[in-house]
Fold this protein.
Amino acid sequence: MKEQVQQIKLGELHPFRNHPFHVKDDESLQALCDSIQEYGVLSPLLARPTGEGYEIISGHRRRAAALKLGLKQLPVLVRDMSDDEAIILMVDSNIQRENLLPSEKAFAYRMKLEAMKHQGERVDLTCAQVGNKLTGKKSVQIIADNSSDSKTQIQRYIRLTYLAKPILDLVDEGRISFSPGVELSYLSKLEQAELWDIMQSEDCTPSLSQAVRLKKLSMKGELNPERIYEIMSEEKANQKERVRIEVSQIRKYFPKDYTAHQMEEKILQMLEANYKKRQRSQDAR
């Protein structure tokens, strides 16, 4: 079937199944809306036909902007693709976007790796990924060859997909750094649930050193709630005299795509500006 751009109703365009990339209603999306209002949709979406319409491969943000603007249809390049081909192209179309959350990259890399491995098991395919696989190059190295992340870093991102969601959310918010998050991903589901309960009750998050110790105990089969509490109740230097504000309490005051770290920096900037203003007022008396 020859590929061609078609005008397709928005109601027939569906997000990609388990799409790992979030479409944020932020300033960037508003800028896209403004551009579409002035110039129209300059680049068609890419989608594949399904039994219930069309599954979007590339163009989720354009669809979201069109919904905000009340458009009825969009230009779409329709292409027949297998599940694995669609996953690989969907990830490749989005993975280079700026300001991706750790969880977005984590699940995207995992989806692509699983699709590539599945393709490699099918001898009827002759795509580039299979050719590379047959020469002995591992799929994760092929992904790294076409990515800004190294093979090791990609593997570390994929580890994050084994984190319990509440803990992964803290990694996305910047309250747990990337490296401790990777170490914690080796804990079992039960151990992560116990860790989460203690983190909540003690209002703390693990440092890299603590996360490494938790992982080691887990690997030895010696991690239990008592050991978790013992490690997490240690007072860290960077937690002394610390003011804590829940992100949910201040989220409405910042753009929706701001991380916890960006909020903290902005608050400090505003406090510094207010301090200088008071100093000038006092000097003028």
